[in-house]
Every structure is written in C-alpha cells, then in structure tokens.
Give the backbone structure.
Amino acid sequence: MTNPLLKPWTGAFALPPFAEIADADFAPAFETALAEARAHVAAIASQSAPPGFANTIEALELAEETLSRVGGVFFNLAGSDATPAREALQRDLAPRLAAFSSEVTMNTALFERIEALWQARDGLGLDREQARVLELYRRMFVRAGAALDDGGRARMAQIKERLAVLSTAFTQNLLADERDWFLPLAPADLEGLPDFVVVAARAAAEERGREGHVLTLSRSLVVPFLQFSPRRDLRRRAYQAWVARGANGGATDNRALAAEILKLREERARLLGYASFADFKLEPEMAKTPARVRELLMRVWAPARRTAEADAAVLETMMHDDGVNGDLEPWDWRYYSEKRRLLEHDLDEAELKPYFALDAMIGAAFDCARRLFGLEFRPLDLPLYHPDARAWEVTRGGSHVAVFIGDYFARGSKRSGAWCSTFREQRRLGGEVRPVVVNVCNFAKPAQGAPALLSWDDARTLFHEFGHALHQMLSDVTYSFISGTAVARDFVELPSQLFEHWLEVAEVLDTHARHAVTGAAMPASLRDRLLAAATYDQGFATVEYLASALVDLAFHEGAAPADPMAVQEEVLAGIGMPQAIRMRHATPHFAHVFAGDGYSAGYYSYMWSEVMDADAFEAFREAGDPFDPDVAARLERCILSAGGSQEADALYLAFRGHMPGVEPLLKGRGLLEPA
Ligand SMILES: [Zn+2]
C-alpha cells in the first residue's frame, strides 16, 4: 500500500506524514476508507450474534477508523489551506459523506440492534459511560430518521445530501469573496494608521504579489483600519465591502443558498415530528426550548441596547466636534470609539500592541496550563502541512498527553475566523489514543524578521481557542463518541470562554506581556488602564452579537422564511437595532449558521456558555487564587476531562454545586444598572 494516508503512520506521535501526502492521494484514500467503513457497518448489522454492547456499539466506534483518519487530515487542510483541487474534492465529497452517514443511520437492521440494547439497557451491566454512549447512539439514530417509514427515510437522506452541497457552497463562496476583494492604499491613504496596520497592509500586498499596501477583508486588518483611519470615505468603502461578503450578486452570492438551507431544515424537523427546526435542534442542548433561549437573549438585550444608545450619542457628538455632520454610521463607530477609549481610559491600541507579541501570548497560555493542570510544552521540529504551522508535545509528569499544533497567521487559503479542531481525538477503546489538536487563527502576519504583534482582541482569541484545545487535550474517556468537545453546543464554549479570564489576571500580564523590542514588562499603569477598560464598548459588542443570535433563532422558529433578508430586517426593526451598529454576522456571511449545522439555532450558545464561564471563574475568585489547585483539579475532573460523559447540567453542578444566574454575565460586561 503506497498511499501515505492509508499506510500505518509510524512516525513521531503517529502524526499524519504531511510531507508525503499529495492532493492526489485524498480521493483514492477516501474511496478505500468509505468502502472499508461500509463493509464494517454491514458486518455489524448483519451478524448472527445477538446484539451486545461490544459487538454493536463498540464495533461502531471503531468502524470508521480509516475514514476519520483521512477525513481528519483533509478537512483540516480544506479549512486552513484551501487549494482549487481541495475545494473541488470537498464539493464532491460533501454529498457522498452525507449519503454514507444517512446510509448508516437509516440501516434498519443496525437500528434494531441499538433499539434492542436500549430496551434491555438495565440488564446489560453497563458502566455509567457505556450507558451514556448507548443513550447517545440511540438518540443520534432517532434524530437522524432511523425510526421513520421507508418514504420518510429516503426523503431524509435526500435532504441531508442537498444540505451538505449547499453548506459547502456557502463556505466556498464566502472564501472567494474574501479572497477577491482588496483595496490598494496609496501613501496618503495610510495617514493615521499605526505601524502594525501599515506593516500588515504591506504583507497583504506581498501575498497578492503587489507593490505597496493593500487593505483586505481579513478581520485582523479591516477592523484596525476601521479603528484608526481618519479617512471616512475609505472606512466606508472598506466597511461596505466587508459586510457585503456573500451578497455581491453573481456566482458567489449566498442569499438564495440561505433560503434553501432554511427550507430544508424545516422540512427535516417536521419529518421527525417537531414543530420547528429550533425545537428539534434545541432538544438535546442545555437550553431545551426556543423560549428559554429567547428569554436569556432578551434579558441581556435591554441593558445592552440602552448602553449602546448612550454610547452612540457620545460618539456622534465627538464626530460632530470633528467637523463631520450627519448621523453616526457603522463605519464611524470603531473610529470614534477608539478615540474615546484614548480619552477616557488613556488607552491606545497602538501603545498596547508591542506588549502582545504572539510568542509571548502562546507562552502565557502554556504557562497558565502548566500552573493550573501541570502541563508542559516542548516545541517539536516536525514537517507539518504548512510552514506557518508549529507543533508542541504536551506532557504531564513526563507522560505524553497530546500534540498541539498552532497555525496562527492569516493567508488567502484560510477561511476567516478562528477555530480549534483535531487531527485525532482522545479515546481508550482499542488501546490508549492521545489527541492531536490544532488551533487555527487569522492574525496578521508580520514582515520578514519582525515580531508578530497581537491586539488585545487577538490575544483573547488565542486564549479562547486554547481553552477548546485543553478540553480536547485533557479529555479522559473510553469512547471517542463523547471525547473532548463532544458536548452540548451551548456548553462547548464554557472551557474556551473560561480560559479567556486568565488573560485578565494581573500577574499573567506582568509575567508575559513584555515589550516585543525592549523586553520590558508592561508598566503597571498601562496594565491597570487596560483592565479598567475591560468592559469598554461592551454595549456595542453585545448588541452586534445579540442581533445575530436573535436573527438565527427567528430563522429556525416556525415556518422557514421565503426571503431571509426580509426577515432579518424585520427582526432588527422589532428589537430596535441601533442605527450605527450592524449584526456581527449578517445572513449572507453567517458561516456559523449556514456553513454547517453546528451553530444553527445555536449562535446563542456563546452567551449561554458565558453565563456559566462568568460564574465558573468566580469559583477561583472565591478561593482567593486564580490558580487554586483544588478548584483547578475539580475543573479538570468534572468538566475538562469528562467530555460528554454526562448531561451538561450535571457536569456543571458537579463542578460548582449550583446553576448560575445571569448577573455575573451582566456584571462582567459592565451592563448592570448602576445601583
Ligand atoms: Zn469557541
């Protein structure tokens, strides 16, 4: 066997042999892996032995081993280093993999075995984790349509295949719009921009093979441009291009795709007997019902909107004082907000930035993981899939824990945003398997030889994704079905958002936020001003987020909208969206909701998790030490190592002893009414 994806991976840490893998290897590897998985599943379903946990559930756990190995490599590369060949294969694979997944969940003989086990569960002598895995398998099959009649099952399979095609197209259109747009900046257009923005604009030009400077729609470039450029005309052009992603007409327009996706989701939910897709989607989550989601979002909306409107009035006055007449527009907000931050908090993003070198922040995240959980990180010199990606071995007490890969810089071949995924998940079934975890970000790449500097926001993103990575790396379960981040969607952001809190610990900043050139620690006064401004502009941030979450919820409740853009406008008008703020993600580029099912009727999850992360960090405060070893051990035992081994409420209760209210969140965002 010569295909490097299929032969045993015998190199260091059994990593994929990246250097040997060519794009042409993927298609035949998927053929073999799919055939193998099909054969395994057929053998499990048709065996004559009566259903047992080992010959059915455990066998299913191992049935797609090769497929998940090949898929692990391919889908990571398709997201972080797309090429035309990879994009074409992804379009071809999406419906075929969806069809295979339907084939498995619609296999009647297989479902009968699972159902028989479920009915007999109390007499099977299962341990708690096994009982949980059986319950989740059955739930997955039922929710996939296994209990439907023949006609229903066939229609369900068609819907899933079509959805896979549509969501792949949605993602690729968005990447194309992001890749295609750039604005050349003449020397005069660079006025007012801090060095780091100028450097990033030069690097962006270089990447496009151009002289001089260009502005792109990469968040790490367009956001600081909107913050600092005094040129209202250019801010407006950049902003309008940024929010038009996916809505530019022509072949890459996502609006019709969004409408079709919503329609198919509704049909899928109704086939299964649910009133709406939101009812279907929320049932296994902590929130359970659309009403409970709306209750939380609207609880926060009122104070957030009040704060944002008050802020808008201040910013508009500053703009008028600046000699610009008329209304404050969305392309003005960040610019005047930055000026106001400088005035009120004496805090200048450009002054801060040298203290947030990428390597220092990676070191800070590692150091927090060491102090909390005893993890050690050793750089590895191994060939990876891209020269910008770096790897570390993670150990504890000398034992191997995981391989961690960091792929931090923006490039044209990478989709936007930041995420954590795995090349391999932790499990113990069939022998101990340790995970290979990757954090992917889109930080601006520095010029050759210069240090990479992050914004405060970027540094938070790095900590956020590293929190997800810890959830994967510390996972300690037998079955990969419940490994690591395989938890309720509205619980999965708890470890990541919780970890962000350590970036705000004064001693962490004192130790790690050192000047990239001089090595000097951040002056205490600057640090204090930074921390005092932690809730600055949270009205804006909360409003733009909530608007997206409420539109997502409205899309999936009741009948699917024929014209999602019209419904988007209705929702925004209904909640009284402030004039100068737009949704964080408008429908045509709302990848969370349309690039897959993950966050559909689920964008609220960040806020649901935030209710918990604010309360969870209080546990360390109450102990009087952000690194309190007992609280850290409890966090690892009850949450970070536990994966989906219990319902999320039970995991949280075990850690904290109570369920939180919304007050710590409002306090954390500075949205509590002054007493
Ligand atoms: Zn996250």
Observations:
- The two ends are 71 Å apart (CA to CA).
- The chain has a mean pLDDT of 95.
- The first helix runs from residue 26 to 46.
- The chain has 27 helices and seven strands.
